[in-house]
């Protein structure tokens, strides 16, 4: 009998998580992990934070030896250029084909490029998705120079924070009324606006970049409100999914590769996980998220289902963002709708609070700024589903972890 071969396409955390889960679950066939970057799988969150600042150790998920110890064959620097779902084989960039019994698409995405801006000057206009991107950007972050960040989303805000700590002058240009507005809403976006301004960032909201041009050693950025000069521009305009190859092979794709709650496409033996996967969440319906923790968990679910386990990814989504000395954490808020009440504990205007979303007298989401232990307690409240009273959540003298065990007063 020939050994089964599972192919994982994409060397990010979803792919790495799938590979390790396969071995942990006792899979004794071949595991091939194909990634187009020159590195073994690594974590992206440090790329806008400690790695960008030059203070982090290697962001590798596993050391090189792990791959030999676990008989996982990494094929780095190799792009998968084709998929034949009938013959069950992939085609590599150099034309070689490799057969599979099951394949996992864990290809994440690429930083969005804006035609006419992104391509003006390769040295001065930057994007951030890969280690190489982070290294190139770090080389431009010199004290006293100006960095303009186009886009006040998480990546843009995190880079702005890191750059300020390195003494760089920073301007954020954001089209919306506040940074992080799409993810957090205008009010919480306003909290981050104050944090950035207090740190010396020039934050310009409601302003659209129209063009960029070379200007001596630097760049001149033209917006609908005026012009500004800088040495470097970071285009932080979100993620574009890599679905062309899969759609051409007949894999259903819309905003990503369409999968069910078990990370299965509707084609036999074809799975998807992580940022590329538009998954059917049992609680929130179809959505696609770009969060580290979900990628890790989905990779594990996909791996177990490649082995026929029949499990689902039904965790509430968890993410965090570090900016300066502040940490934002969120659990269960992504995709959640139809709340009965929102309860705030602490002071958003002092950048220290927890916000709970309630439905039917139970906490269904928690989001906190610099309130790690309370967010963790809130997370346990979401998981336990115990009834809680809003006034107890609001009351800072009530220890939240006690509510997990003790239901609310009648
Ligand atoms: C700068 C930055 C900071 C972040 N910070 C946070 C944070 O603080 N908190 C948080 O929750 N999340 C954060 N994220 C998001 C998190 O990193 C992602 O959700 C996570 O990396 C997704 O993992 P993935 O394995 O699905 O995809 P990726 O990490 O994108 O990995 C996919 C890999 O597949 C490769 N690939 C693509 N196509 C092919 C192909 N055809 N053949 C072979 N290989 C291919 C890609 O090059 C890539 O290496 C951050 C992301 C970035 C970019």
Automatic annotation (TrEMBL):
InterPro entries: FAD-oxidoreductase/Apoptosis (IPR050446), FAD/NAD-bd_sf (IPR036188), FAD/NAD-binding_dom (IPR023753), FAD/NAD-linked_Rdtase_dimer_sf (IPR016156), Reductase_C (IPR028202). Residues 318-403 form the Reductase C-terminal domain. Coiled coil: none annotated. Its cofactor is FAD. Keywords: FAD, Flavoprotein, Oxidoreductase. Residues 5-299 form the FAD/NAD(P)-binding domain. It comes from the Bacteria. This is FAD-dependent oxidoreductase. It comes from Pseudonocardia acidicola.
């Amino acid at each position: 009998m020939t050994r089964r071969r599972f192919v994982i396409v994409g060397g990010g955390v979803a792919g790495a998580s799938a590979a390790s889960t396969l071995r942990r679950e006792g899979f004794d066939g071949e595991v091939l992990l194909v990634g187009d970057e020159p590195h073994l799988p690594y974590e992206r969150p440090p790329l806008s934070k400690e790695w960008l600042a030059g203070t982090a150790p290697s962001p590798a998920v596993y050391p090189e030896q792990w791959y030999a110890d676990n008989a996982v064959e990494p094929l780095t620097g190799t792009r998968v250029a084709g998929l034949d779902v009938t013959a069950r084989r992939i085609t590599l960039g150099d034309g070689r084909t490799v057969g599979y019994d099951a394949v996992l698409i864990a290809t994440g995405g690429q930083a969005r490029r804006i035609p006419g801006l992104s391509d003006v000057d390769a040295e001065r206009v930057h994007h951030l998705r890969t280690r190489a991107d982070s290294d190139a950007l770090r080389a431009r972050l010199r004290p006293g120079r100006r960095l303009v960040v186009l886009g006040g989303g998480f990546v843009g805000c995190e880079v702005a924070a890191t750059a300020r700590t390195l003494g760089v002058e920073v301007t954020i240009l954001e089209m919306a009324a506040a940074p992080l507005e799409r993810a957090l809403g205008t009010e919480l976006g306003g909290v981050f606006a104050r944090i950035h301004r207090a740190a010396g960032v020039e934050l310009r909201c409601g302003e659209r970049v129209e063009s960029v041009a070379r200007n001596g050693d630097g760049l001149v950025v033209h917006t609908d409100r005026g012009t500004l000069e800088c040495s470097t521009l970071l285009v932080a305009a979100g993620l574009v999914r890599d679905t062309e190859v899969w759609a051409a092979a007949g894999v259903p794709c819309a905003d990503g590769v369409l999968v069910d709650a078990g990370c299965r496409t509707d084609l036999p033996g074809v799975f998807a996980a992580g940022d590329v996967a538009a998954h059917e969440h049992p609680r929130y319906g179809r959505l696609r998220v770009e969060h580290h923790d979900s990628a890790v968990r989905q990779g594990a679910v996909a791996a177990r289902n490649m082995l026929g386990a029949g499990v689902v990814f039904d965790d509430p989504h968890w993410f965090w963002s570090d900016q300066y000395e502040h940490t934002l954490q969120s659990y269960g808020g992504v995709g959640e709708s139809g709340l009965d009440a929102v309860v705030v504990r602490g002071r958003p205007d002092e950048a220290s609070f927890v916000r709970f979303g309630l439905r039917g007298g139970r906490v269904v989401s928690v989001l906190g700024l610099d309130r790690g232990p309370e967010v963790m307690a809130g997370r346990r409240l979401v998981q336990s589903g115990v009834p809680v009273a809003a006034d107890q959540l609001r009351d800072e003298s009530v220890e939240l972890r006690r509510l997990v065990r003790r239901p609310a007063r009648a």
